[in-house]
Design brief:
Layout: H1 3-8, H2 15-50, H3 56-60, H4 76-107, H5 112-125, H6 129-143, H7 150-175, H8 178-186, H9 191-202, H10 204-219, H11 223-228, H12 247-255, H13 260-290, H14 293-296
């Protein structure tokens, strides 16, 4: 041992360990590049091809009375449908998912009900999107007799959102230190108020991230919307009555037309969808930062 080792009690790092550490770092960087390259290439293609038709006419006009080969038209009706359907799906899925996660973390004691809920959440996580659409089509439209509508599509999308919201919220609630709960209990605060005022605000950032992951997933779904909402070229701002277009359906329908004009509209629709998801994500981040207890403190 050297004199420095005897004084500090710390063994020097060997050359072999340094080499292994460097190799692992290089592998991590390579894995990051491999993951980023496809994402960057997709964004580059969408931006490059979508800018050809991404203009105010595209954002403010629908496809009503526009032929397949006509140069005009836009995706305003699809943008309205996407925003309304995602909003309705979030209003259905987020409260249910949040309350389910709170029950699993704060109230359940690992009993049969909790194990059954966890099992069904895991099963729902792997459900193909078309199955959710088929379920709403069979039950809501064929059995109960309701018409194709944006609300039917929102219910199908909410089925896909729920497991993501539950799992993300559950993990974030488990990360909240137990000391915070015990401190509130020591002051005589009821459990429900501790959850509302202490636990949920502390985990808010992670919960918002999970919600946005769920929104990003369902915003681009085509199969469940195709089965429950159907097609229309007109603007329908009422999601409870009649077919209603959304951006994934708009992209799908335009890509099927064998002309460059329609394909340009499809690329512009894809760019619009990406921008909407990014803006919603930014808005959610701002809200979570504004409501963060760290900021208030």
């Amino acid at each position: 041992m050297t004199t420095a080792t005897l004084k500090t009690g710390i063994q020097p790092i060997s050359t072999g360990r340094r080499v292994k550490d460097r190799v692992v770092q290089v592998l991590v960087y390579l894995a990051f590049l491999v993951a980023v390259v496809p994402l960057v290439s997709v964004l580059y293609l969408v931006i490059k091809n979508g800018l050809a038709r991404f203009d105010m006419e595209f954002l403010t006009h629908s496809m009503r009375n526009i032929g397949p080969n006509d140069a005009g038209g836009g995706a305003y009706h699809a943008i309205v449908g996407t925003l309304e359907q995602v909003l309705l799906a979030s209003l259905i899925a987020v409260p249910i998912g949040l309350l389910t996660a709170v029950y699993l973390v704060e109230y359940s004691r690992g009993g049969r009900l909790a194990r059954a809920i966890s099992f069904f959440v895991d099963v729902m996580t792997g459900i193909p999107s078309v199955v959710a659409g088929l379920f709403i089509l069979a039950f809501w439209i064929l059995v109960l007799g309701f018409e194709f509508s944006g609300f039917a599509g929102a219910m199908a999308l909410s089925i896909l959102m729920m497991p993501t919201v539950v799992r993300a919220t559950e993990e974030m609630l488990r990360l909240v230190p137990m000391d915070l709960r015990e401190a509130a209990f020591a002051l005589g605060v009821p459990k429900w108020r501790t959850i509302v005022k202490v636990v949920l605000p502390t985990a808010l950032t992670g919960i918002v991230t999970g919600v946005m992951l769920a929104v990003a997933r369902v915003a681009g779904e085509t199969a469940p919307v195709l089965l429950t909402v159907f097609f229309t070229d007109s603007i329908n701002t009422d999601p409870f009555h009649g077919p209603q277009m959304d951006l994934p359906l708009f992209i799908f329908s335009q890509m099927q037309l064998p002309n460059q004009t329609a394909i340009d509209r499809a690329w512009a629709g894809a760019l619009t969808l990406i921008l909407i998801v990014m803006l919603l994500n930014l808005l959610a981040r701002l809200i979570s930062w504004w409501r963060s207890p760290v900021r208030k403190g």
